[in-house]
Amino acid sequence: MSSPSNSILVVEESSTMCGLLDAVSSDGKIKMIHVDSPEEGIELIENRDPFSVIWSSDDLKKSNGRDFLKSCNKHSPLSSRILRSNFFSNTELQSMVRSGELQSYLCGTSLISVVDSMLSAIDIGIEHHKINALDEFFDVTDSIREDQLETNLERFNNVIDKFTYHSSLDVTNRETELNSLLSLTGKVLNKFPTVLGKQFVLEEKLNWKDKGLRVSGVFSNFHLKLKYLERYLRQSYLTIENRIVRIDETYNKISERDKLIQKLKDEFMDE
Fold first, then answer.
1. 211: left (phi over 0), alpha (psi -120 to 50) or beta
2. Buried b or exposed e, range 121-159, using 16+ CB within 10 angstroms
């Protein structure tokens, strides 16, 4: 069995929370690494490929988990950041998501709500990381350089491996995070025509040099994978849009119900 292509760095002092996270990743699809302090976390981050998700709590005894995640944005910008909070309100945490400081968060006290929120936060975090990794490949890789073809294809294969993890995104009460993810997904989708165009130019150039004997199969495989990713992102975009619509509809129904209840109360009081 191949090693997981997605990984989570966990900075937690709570053994209970670590146990829950281990249970979530027990299917082997995500590699989970625990450390007890931000200092250990930074050392790991600086000496390996980016983690898909970096998770920290804000109640560490000797450190500030929020400040640690802020520093992670500098050390590992491709990693999604999740804060488990005992101190901030939902409104404050949603503001951190909107500003880009976090990609998701976890708060709550009951076991059921914590596990549900944990799964939602991890799914959203990994989706952010996958799309950020693809975006970085599109932006940083000089895809029209002949001498970098082999390196580029290797990097591309490393990115596409991450997409073997499929997040359900069947989440509730996560409109802020979903809107952020929707924006990122749309941004990367818009880059596909340009990337495909550059690859076709390079393919024609190399085919002209060696009469197509060496590179036609390589590019055919590359184009198929790009098309797969484009379909994946389009489906993901539609899924996220539908989730947001469902959340909005639920909020509207709750609002209408509350208005009706208040109206009935007012009528009875008048009588």
1. left
2. bbbbbbbbbbbbbbbbbbeebebeeeeebeebbebbeeb
In this predicted model, what pLDDT tens digit does every residue of 58-107 receive, in sequence order? Answer: 888 778 889 999 999 999 999 999 999 888 888 999 999 999 999 999 88
Contact 103, 74 (CB under 8 A): no
User: Considering its fold, how many domains does the chain have in total?
Assistant: 1
Q: Torsion-angle region of residue 171: left (phi > 0), alpha (psi -120 to 50) or beta? A: beta
Domain containing 75 equals 6-257
Q: Establish if 1 belongs to a structural domain.
A: no
Q: What pTM was estimated for this model as a whole? A: 0.79
* CA–CA distance, 203 with 197 (Å, rounded to integer): 10
Residues 144, 201: contact at Cβ < 8 Å?
Answer: yes
